[in-house]
């Protein structure tokens, strides 16, 4: 059943209420049925309503996939702030050889700069202070800052030729997450929820986890619109899981409310909303009812999935000591694996702190330590459970960093400004060729010389792995047909198995 059909079903509940009010399920049961797109239900041992037959969850707008899917889910480890590719993945010894020399104009070629370095008289080249070693069967260069990532060199595909038009954080992050530098568009997870729906009746299709790094603890903020539904129904917005007593806001009942009382309240709210819908015809009202029902079921499912007490000691050792501290990157990576096991379709992690305009050597060492072990552990954990083959893991930020120093270059210290023209990300699992490096930059690490990959190419490839043609997943709004990749994007077939 399509999303449209699911929402239309809600309008029929008033006609059924006289009958269903006499049954054990009541209006809330129909609200649940309409959300899930199923007709007949039974109670599980835990008291949850489940389908007697067929897959549980909400079906999306697509009646069928455009082509066979390689993956079922995505875990996106977004490194907010712009990690320096020159300290992590793009080894450029020439920059150390020519340290302190001015960036040749023939290399920069008049490229746009941010207001933070456009006023500099000189652009002194600076290489990484950290060593690089070759790893894996193909001798992939990876920084000594990432020893755990280096050990999985044969499992990941490093793309060194990413580029974007955005040069400042907010439009750049928004571009990656929504396909537009301007706010207001649906995020990737919302598009997937809209197109494919959910495979789990008790958890949302799109979840969000946030952590703050030690490299720059008070760095660039993130806005909730980054995981918003834009012009899609609010049913498709991301649900943030917090490191707090109440991990999902407004989910728990106030003291004194019983389950029976909550069920009766939801039935009454559904009846009022139904009446409002009959008067206005606003489909968002139906989405609101569906969200109430999802929240009701999440009261049981969320505590179960976030409770990691039953994880064995070797798992905590794999992810690192921080995995036992809620809200850390390591804890969120472990939670991402648990959500993936529950068939959550799109799991978005944001890790802040990569915006290192000054004191880069000290800051990036801390930041890399935050994420290195847990990122590698997540890939290894999925692999040992047989889940990596149908899960796509992505690691990367919104842009890279310049090959010249922002501000004064000293013997021990330097900073780097934003650099949208070339930067690195890595991907693992989900039909991606493992153990390869795709794309190259020049000896200065400034311009792409081979196989450029645009943001829209990245998004098109992600959708392709899920069985979606990025040009066909569209939504008509205000007279225009919108899609995640706007009017551009090509699948990067060279990195696919």
TrEMBL record:
Alphabetized Gene3D superfamilies for the sequence: Alkaline Phosphatase, subunit A
Listed Pfam families: DUF1501
Keyword Transmembrane helix (UniProt): yes
Annotated transmembrane regions: 20-41
Domain of life: Bacteria
Keywords annotated in UniProt: Membrane, Transmembrane, Transmembrane helix
PROSITE patterns: TAT (PS51318)
Residue ranges of coiled coil: none
Name of the protein described by the UniProt record: DUF1501 domain-containing protein
Species, as recorded: Maribacter arenosus
